[in-house]
Design brief:
The protein contains 14 helices and twelve strands. The protein is α/β, with parallel strands linked by helices. The strands form two sheets. The chain has a seven-stranded mixed β-sheet, with helices on both faces. Helix 6 crosses helix 8, helix 6 packs across helix 11 and helix 13 packs across helix 14. It is globular.
């Protein structure tokens, strides 16, 4: 076992140390890789070392350099050294983190990690939390608490009686909400037809006046879904106005803060999410700006009782043998029975960074996004469509084809990697700065690669 794990560590180190030299995008498609990996199931055992070596060799052409400081696709962070090492220990310990009785060390670690997250994000001290797979399940968890509480206020026990016959829940959400919100509503039985879209402003943030007008007709259970960090533009909904209007109407406010919620960790950026602490629940990711390995989402709920009512589970065979002195039991705050110890890498990341380190990370990545916007926006024929937090939308020329061509050339060349999107009907290059290693030097090198790609496929017009 020791030799095998040393070999795995060497393979991992080779992969990480080589990221600066390899093209960032994958060299092979999944269809190509199936031609190598899809072999008949062996009839008998194989040497574990040989299996590992073959797996590393065969997978290499299809790996994307998510850990590179010049990966700017989607909103994907890397893995801080402490969080990666802790994640390896999670695999070695192989603890079922579902409950405190069977995994007391993990329960204690996650209790501290959750409290640290609440503190760093500036949320109410009594906020409860659950470590889940990502923002998708964080939405499901928090909105389950919201569903239960708004129906409880209307005299209906959805945890006992289900949704048939329950009062209708209205869901007010911004027109540019993330798709995971709609899927969460489907999974919770509310359906996408429950959503009433609230107009967004030019930046993609919810229009507070439009929300207040929609809330004026609310006379029953209602959930408002706000956003801290538009997935394209980085825009943040006007939280003080959103929360005040919702509270007047008796509505629950849930915040999609997949990455933007972390702006609260930096005093210089905190004003961007001012007022978010007045919401009732929040969803965020650890594998974005906090840079812990996949997968890690965090559901946060101000009303711990509502959170627990929605998620609790009990059985005689898992009774708390540790007694009243046991740590907080994760089982009653998460949607899973059997669960990986996702909070352990979060604990390691936060302990290694400290409050100042988290603030520096957030600030530096926002500064890097600012650099992209400033330098690219100054180029003839390049238009910055939107920019906030760590997100930048860029368009080349006057049509979609030019932008798509530049994006494709950048991805093929390999110095950096950006993803594409469509915003307000126009194709754009989407730059998401999320990796803990990214510096202004990485940005400058990437800008040169982008401009070289632009000149190769669509030469820049002369400056006026």
């Amino acid at each position: 076992m020791r030799d095998l794990l040393h070999a795995a560590a060497d393979h991992a180190a080779d992969h990480l140390e080589g990221q600066g030299d390899r093209p960032i995008g994958p060299a092979s498609s999944s269809a190509d890789l199936l031609g190598v990996l899809d072999v008949p199931l062996p009839e008998g055992p194989a040497d574990p070392q040989g299996v590992l070596d073959d797996l590393v060799r065969d997978a290499a052409p299809g790996l994307t350099g998510f850990g590179s400081p010049r990966f700017f696709g989607w909103v994907i962070g890397g893995a801080l050294p402490a969080s990666l090492a802790a994640d390896w220990m999670v695999g070695a310990w192989d603890q079922n983190a579902g409950g405190a009785t069977i995994a007391p060390a993990v329960a204690a670690i996650e209790e501290v990690a959750g409290k640290w997250v609440v503190d760093v994000l500036g949320l109410p001290e009594a906020t409860s939390f659950g470590f889940v797979t990502g923002c998708q399940m964080a939405h499901v968890t928090a909105l389950a608490a919201a569903r239960g509480e708004v129906l409880r206020r209307a005299g209906w026990d959805v945890e006992r009686d289900g949704l048939p016959g329950a009062p209708r829940i209205r869901v007010l959400a911004g027109a540019e909400r993330h798709v995971t919100v709609d899927r969460a509503l489907r999974l919770l039985g509310l359906g996408t037809a429950s959503v009433e879209e609230v107009e967004a402003d030019a930046s993609g943030a919810m229009d507070a006046g439009a929300l207040r007008a929609a809330l004026a007709s609310v006379d029953g259970p209602c959930i408002v879904v706000a956003q801290a960090g538009n997935v394209n533009t980085g825009a943040v909904d006007p939280m003080p106005d959103v929360c005040a209007a919702a509270r007047e109407a008796g509505a629950w406010v849930h915040v999609d803060g997949a990455f933007g919620l972390w702006a609260a960790a930096r005093p210089r950026r905190r004003a961007l999410v001012a007022g978010v602490e007045a919401a009732d629940s929040w969803a965020t990711d650890g594998h974005k700006w906090l840079n812990v390995p996949y997968d890690c989402g965090i559901a946060l709920v101000a009303d711990a009782a509502a959170h627990q009512r929605a998620m609790t589970a009990a059985a005689a065979y898992i009774a708390d043998a540790a007694g009243a002195g046991a740590a907080r039991d994760p089982l009653v705050f998460n949607s899973e029975f059997s669960r990986r110890a996702r909070g352990v890498p979060v604990y390691a990341a936060l302990r290694s960074l400290g409050r100042a380190g988290v603030a520096e990370l957030v600030d530096r990545l926002c500064d890097c996004a600012d650099r992209f916007a400033e330098r690219l926006g100054a180029e003839p024929g390049v238009q910055v469509l939107a920019h906030a937090l760590n997100q930048v939308l860029v368009r080349f020329g006057d049509d979609d084809e030019a932008t798509d061509a530049v994006l494709g050339a950048v991805q093929r060349e390999g110095t950096c990697f950006m993803s594409g999107t469509v915003w307000r009907g126009r194709h754009a290059m989407r730059i998401s700065v999320s990796n803990w290693q990214t510096t202004l030097e990485d940005v400058d090198r990437s800008i040169e690669a982008v401009l070289a790609a632009r000149d190769a496929v669509a030469p820049a017009p002369a400056a006026r």
